[in-house]
Amino acid sequence: MRALRTEDQVPAKVEEAARRHGLGRLLHVRRFMHPVVWASGYLSAAIVAAIAYRILRQFVDGWEGEMSRRLDTAVRIAETGLVAFGVLLVLVAVLALARGRRAYYLWEGGFVLQNGLVQTYPWAEVEALLLVRHHTGDLTGEIDRYRLVPRKGRPITIPADPFTEALVKVMLEAGRPVA
Fold first, then answer.
1. N or C: which end of the chain has fewer CB within 10 A?
2. Total number of domains constituting the chain
3. Which residue windows are transmembrane per the record (predicted)?
4. Taking the CB of residue 15, how many other CB atoms lie within 10 A of it?
């Protein structure tokens, strides 16, 4: 693998942590969307749910005396669902903001996770990389994601994408188990 240019790609604190642990060349970077982008998407969907609720309420308000009991029950269930969906979306937006911006950095000598804090894992401190497969549906047996298991700390979930293909290759070259 060829080394990536680190200018404008790697924050100084990540580069410093990699240098401090002697991780060598940067090979691959996986950044996630900014949490504000995620949150704004969820909040937009919550606003759509609120608008749908309001439209449904206005539509039904004129029918109060004429609605059958079944239709009234269906409308109340729909309203409750829209409110619950909107509240859930607002909570997910807050969680996206609280989680912060995430990025993974693959170096010759290890892995760096940036999730607010910078966590460095030289290959000697990594137990294994575990494959997690889909168990149901059309994708049964296909790789869903990976879990990087450090000797200390919690496993790190990594989505299956070109970054993980590079991660698997580097881990095997480093003599670390991939299962």
1. C
2. 2
3. 35-56, 76-98
4. 19
Same domain? 93 vs 121: no
Q: Clarify whether residues 61 and 117 are in a common domain.
A: no
Do 49 and 66 belong together in one domain?
Answer: yes
The answer to whether 122 and 22 have CB atoms below 8 angstroms apart is: yes
**Which backbone phi and psi does 161 adopt, to 5 degrees?**
-165, -175
**Beta bridge partner(s), residue 133:** 143
Q: What is the DSSP letter of 35?
A: H
Q: Is 2 helix (H, G, I), strand (E, B) or coil?
A: coil
| Tens-place pLDDT, residues 133-165 | 878 888 877 888 899 999 998 999 888 888 888
Q: For a pLDDT cut of 90, what percent of the chain falls above it?
A: 30
Within 13 A of 171's CA, how many CA atoms are on the CB side? 24
